[in-house]
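Hi there, hope your week has been kind to you so far. Do you reckon you could talk me through the fold, stretch by stretch? Thanks so much in advance, here it is.
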Amino acid sequence: MEKTSRIAVTGINGFVGKHLVRELNKNGSVIIGIGREDSLDKEIVDLVDEYLVSDLSLEWPNIEDVDVIIHLAGMASVGPSFNEPQKYINVNSSMITNMCEFYLKNTTKNPRIIIVSSSSLYGSGDNKFDEDSSLELKSPYAVSKALVESQAQYYRNMGLECIIVRPFNHIGPGQMPGFLLPDLYEKIVSLEPGASSIAVGDLSTKKDYTDVRDVVRAYNLLALSTKLNYETYNICSGRGLSGQDILDSLKQATNNPNLKAIVNKDILRPNEVMVQIGDNSRINSELGWEPKIDINQTIKDFVATKDINSSL
């Protein structure tokens, strides 16, 4: 397959980055990876054409000939942001400044810049959130993403094509602890012999979950589309699942149907978003994207990947 589009991916060694590489490679793009690690993750080393080591909070590497940048890098967990609010704001915003200033000042070829924001900006509500819904910032992480979106608007006014994506909760094979599915999995596999319960936070919350492989398929479509009609796109399934729904599916996938969950008040998150479901009408109508992978299959694949890795 002839490779045409040159696409730079920041945070390439992360959970989403590795899935994105597979999707971009499948579609014939030249992939330039950027990460803080000394080398590419072994899972994707044969799929990436060039790798650059850089701390993007300090500087942007000298990449002039690129068609699209998909900016995944940043501090991503909501929970820890309450303990390090300024760090989240500083790191996530400085990356945008360094990247966009480089393309304003150092090259005449301005790439499309796809900046990954978050559904955390929407807060909580019973109605589906679309891209024009009002924002409600309930964590320092959300504050940092709101700042990133404001920066994107500024650089858009300066002539750069900055596209914002707001992915809702995405899960799948390879996701690391710090998020609901891998955290619940770790509690289950760490049970002492004879134990029949795990401590959990609030599992009554109802969120919008999408398989990460569907999410990166949306990123690929946005990267390769000749023209985009909007500045902001939700990436979501359009339906809600509770934390208990995720646990129930995980119990089946790990063959622990009788496992009990006991709420531990010490691990409840402050300002928890209780209900958050997205509206994906915009990207669906413009690019025909919609999720294809059932979440029960997602969880089965997550567990299967864990089982394979633990046996190596």
Summary: Residues 171 and 181 are 7 Å apart (CA to CA). The chain is about 35% helix and 20% strand.
